[in-house]
Structure formats: structure tokens, C-alpha cells
Amino acid sequence: MSFVNIKRVLRLGLVNFWRNLWLSLGSVLILTLTLITITVSVIQNYDIRQTTDAIKGKLDITVYFDDNVPESDIKDLQSKLQSRPDIKSALYISKDDALKVWDTRPTTETIKGLVTQENNPLPRSLQLRTYESESLETIATLLKSPSLQNKIRRVSYEDNKKIIQDLIARNKDITQSGMISSLIFMIISLIIIINTIRIIILTRRKEFDVMRLVGASDFYVRAPLIIEALIIGFVAALLSTAFLYIGILYDVPIVPSFSQYFGSGAQAVGELVSQNIFLIFSLQLVIAFIITVVTTIVSMHRYLKR
User: How many Cα atoms occupy the beta-carbon half-sphere of 121 within 13 Å?
Assistant: First the structure.
């Protein structure tokens, strides 16, 4: 096909989009909502996974000992735990070390004064870090052995375990709800775009028949509809990306930031979106083009027969 014919097809597609502006805007708005829903769902799931991984990397087990346990027994347990291949570090915290940590806590001087060098009820402890968070369960089970029950006052693992379980449960719920919402909006988009193309074809059927009678090829008849669908997809992706970017720019909580909520040190959602805005636009554009082109081809196959 010559450059002149390609230029004519592109121009006809643009003219048809403007001529069917109100029909096209309905498709654009629904497709924009679909892209926003899909993008928000993906970003939110990524943020939760990132937050979970960051928190897992900071998790440790703190083993608190009774005051009557000899320090030699604690050091012996420290040595045994440190020799395990799954233990990254086993830090011994004495009463003096615990007091120093206590003095740095953000509380009133009156409360801090309850614990002094002479009157120090803070327990000695071992702070254990593992190479893999999955090893925490194994270490916690080991510390529950009968030989250690009369020495250990408390193990902090259960508190950390609950955080991870809550995050995983939350991640699962949000993933499912995001997938359902995305699927619903995608189905609505498909239906509306199919009906939009169908109405365009039915209202211009005589025009298509005349074009064929004067010798227009099947490609010349169908190509402008594809161009029109691509324009709908492009405008929808542009609006969706602009909505996300403006929301981040003016600090609108479009996507809840779990990394910020849990203080995990993971990359914030706003920073994530702003740094990858062109990638987000490109992916939205691909999704929009796939939806619009597929629905247009289906509509043409059904309603634009020779």
C-alpha cells in the first residue's frame, strides 16, 4: 500500500473519531476506568509484596531469660545457635545493654526513672537474626524444647509471626478484590466498545456499501475503524496515566501505601509511580490497544460482512 493510501486511512480514522465523538467518549471513559482499576490493583499488590519482603528482612527473634539463669548458660546457648547455618547473628544483650536501650525510648523521664542501674528488672536476652525468614519458625520451635523451658521467660516470635500472617492475608484479599474489579471493568469495556463499533457500522453501512461499489478495498473499509479504536485506546491510556500522576503530584491517596503504614523502609507508592510513569503509560497503552483492537475486529467480523 502506498504512503498516500496510508495517509488517507489515518485521516479518515481521525475524522470518524471526531464525527462519532460522543460514542467514542463513552468508550474512552469506561476504558479509562478499566485501566485505572487494573493499574491501581497491580501497584497495590506490588507495594504489599515489597512491604512484606522488607519486613521479613528485619524480623528477628528475641529470647528473654529469667534472672536466675547463669550467664554461662546463656553464652553456651548463644554459641550453639551461632553455629547453626541458618542463623545470621546471635547478639547477647545484658542488663546494662537493655538499660541503655530503655533510656533511648521516647517516653517521659518519670517512667524512665523506674528502671535504674541499682533497680534494673529488664531481662537479659539473645537477639537472633536468620538468613531466611522461613527459618524463624524452626528456631522458635527449637527454643520451645523442654530443656530450655525453665530458663526462657518469653520468645518474641509470636508477635512477628502475626504481622506476617496479617500481611499475607491482607495481600490475598486485595489481590482477589483487585482481580475481580479489573475483570468486571474489562468486561464492561468490551461490551461498550463492541456496541460502539456496532452502532458506527450500522449507521454507516450504506456508506461502506457505496465505498465498495466504487472499488474501495476491504482493507480501506476496515482500517479506519481500527485507527478509530487505536485512538480510543491512546486517549484512555493518556487520561488514566494523567489521573495517576496528578493524584501522586497532589498527594491524593489513590493507592494505599502499606510500606509507609508499616514503616518498612520499602519504596513509597508515590515514588514508585513517579519514577516509572512512562513504563506505566506504555503498559496501559498496550492493554488499551489489545482491548480496543480485539473488540473492533470481533465487531467487524460480526457486523461488517460483504
Answer: 5
